[in-house]
TrEMBL record:
Any one GO molecular function term: transferase activity
InterPro entries: Mannose-1P_guanyltransferase, NTP_transferase_dom, Nucleotide-diphossugar_trans
Species of origin: Pseudobdellovibrio exovorus JSS
Protein name: Mannose-1-phosphate guanyltransferase
UniProt key word Thylakoid: no
Sorted UniProt keywords: Transferase
SUPFAM superfamilies given in the database record: Nucleotide-diphospho-sugar transferases (SSF53448)
Segment forming the signal sequence: none
Residues in Nucleotidyl transferase domain copies: 3-242
Length: 319
């Protein structure tokens, strides 16, 4: 199997931070957003021989290269650098396909999604559904109250996808599902994608073939978090810190061994390599191994913040 992580986006809603860091490099609970999907790839390695992983880039590509070259989860990652035009999910896939093997199945994944599930083998199950039913695409989805409202939706009749988008279809019996950023795709879809042209895998490719090809949804029970804007990013940080499970903490500790510390009015996740007094912590905080020690020493109080490298992030940073 081939896999493509989509990491070329501009992350405009998290500016000014994303003027310096591409969004996949922004840490969430001490792990860069672009590494979270590695939690679930192990089940695919044994199931389907996932050996070929490509990451596409556009914005600050060298930072994306460094992120994936220095992670401990997967060896031999290749890069598809887009220039001078960002190509979108379909156009980026077409360009990246020059690095693929001849395997039929492609795993296409956003590189900045955050969700948590107890079903750690869901990718293997979705892959089995995809291949058994000979689907063009199998979209991993969840129930969400804002599907078809705040967010676009995958509209289904049972498992069959009948419509894609925020607009409600005329068939009122269709159920809206929220796409969590991962799908399996048959490589024949590449035949319908133009070279060197920006295009979207949903609106330019899949939606055009819903009447002639089998496109299905795979339902996952999970908690998904919006991290694309500052308010939701910090709300997600607070919520996940309050509910951090052992599986996620083990994953964090592979990258940055960290302690959960109860402090005034909250809890903080602090890298074990950081020396800081609990008296300086208030609310919900995350402090990375990369945090500047001089910055940490200069702060009289750390409150509802994320610290990494030379950055001290809180809501006022983005205002």
């Amino acid at each position: 199997m081939n896999a493509l992580f989509l990491a070329a986006g501009l992350g405009t809603r998290l500016r000014p931070l994303t003027l310096k860091y591409p969004k996949p490099c922004v840490p969430f609970l001490n792990i860069p957003l672009g590494l979270y999907q590695f939690r679930f790839l192990n089940s695919l390695k044994s199931e389907s021989s996932l050996q070929n992983l490509v990451v596409n880039t556009f914005h600050l590509p060298q930072k994306i290269h460094a992120l994936y070259q220095n992670q401990p989860y997967f060896n031999g990652i290749q890069f598809s650098d887009e220039h001078p035009l960002i190509l979108g999910s379909a156009g980026g896939l077409k360009k990246a396909s020059r690095l693929f093997s001849d395997d039929e199945t492609i795993l296409l994944s956003n590189a900045d999604e955050v969700f948590f599930t107890e079903d750690h083998d869901f990718l293997s199950k979705a892959y089995q559904q995809h291949t058994k039913n000979k689907n063009l695409a199998t979209l991993i989805v969840m129930k969400h109250p804002e599907a078809g409202k705040k967010f676009g939706a995958i509209w289904c009749e049972g498992a069959s996808v009948r419509h894609i988008g925020k607009d409600r279809p005329t068939d009122t019996s269709l159920q809206p599902w929220h796409y969590i950023g991962m799908l399996f795709l048959n490589r024949r879809a590449l035949n319908w994608i133009s070279e060197s042209q920006e295009s979207n895998i949903f609106y330019d490719i899949l939606i055009q073939h819903l009447g002639s090809e089998r496109v299905e949804a795979f339902e996952l029970s999970c908690n998904w978090y919006e991290t694309g804007n500052a308010f939701d990013f910090f709300e997600a940080t607070k919520t996940v810190l309050q509910n951090l499970d052992d599986h996620t903490l083990d994953f964090i500790n592979q990258y940055d061994p960290s302690d959960l510390i109860q402090n005034k009015d909250g809890v903080s996740l602090v890298s074990k390599s950081v020396d800081i007094s609990v008296d300086k912590l208030e609310g919900y905080n995350v402090i990375s191994k990369s945090s500047d020690p001089h910055l940490l020493k200069s702060l009289p109080l750390i409150q509802n913040s994320v610290l990494f490298e030379h950055e001290h992030l809180n809501l006022s940073y983005f205002s």
